[in-house]
Amino acid sequence: MKTVCTFLLVLFGSSVAFAQPAPYPGYFQLPINQETKKVEYTAIVPVAGADSEELFARATGWLTQLGSAHTVTHRVSNPETGTLVTHVRAGNKFDAKAFRLAIQVKDGQYHYVVDQITHAQSDYARAGKYSVGTVTTNIEAYGLRRQRKNLIKTIDQIDNLILTTISDLNSTMAGSAQPNTLI
User: What pLDDT does residue 96 have?
Assistant: First the structure.
């Protein structure tokens, strides 16, 4: 009987001891495209009573407003197809979050895609001591790292930045007079 109890104790104790820690559950709550396995925020939003020209003008004005709070670069604008593609960067050179935002407008609806999400941070190395400068990491790599408090905080900040940006885009495209305050 002692042998059986000892065997069961060793069996169950060893499985707990060798179990790997669970990955950050918040990362897997981010919207992941099943084809590319990358984090991607996307939606098709209907807007009643708005044609494509009006929606394109709203999106262009919103991007101009967004540029006052963040750095907006690599802007591609095609009014014939109703396509706007831009790269948005928020933060400073030591801690910046960036993503690609594509907006496609059609009569009565628009489609947005937020992807290519990155985080750039300084490596904080001592001056002159093997410093590589700023390191840019895709958000997908954070799902594979050991989950520490600062990494969880960074993922949450990126998620909040994108959700606030999308919420502001939605309120502007719907034609509401008071957009949300950007982070």
Answer: 87
Neighbour tally for 167: CB within 10 Å: 13
Which stretches in the chain have pLDDT values below 70?
1-2, 4-28, 124-132, 145-147, 176-183
Tokens for 95?
A: 């801690």
pTM tops 0.90, yes or no: no
Look at phi and psi of residue 35 and say left if phi exceeds 0, alpha if psi is from -120 to 50, else beta. Answer: alpha
Instruction: Name the fold adopted by 23-173.
Output: Alpha-D-Glucose-1,6-Bisphosphate; Chain A, domain 4 (3.30.530)
Going from N- to C-terminal start, the domains of the chain cover 23-173
DSSP string of 51-112? -HHHHHHHHHHHHHHHHHHSEEEEEEEETTTTEEEEEEEEE-SSEEEEEEEEEEEETTEEEE
How many whole angstroms separate alpha carbon 38 and alpha carbon 139?
Answer: 9
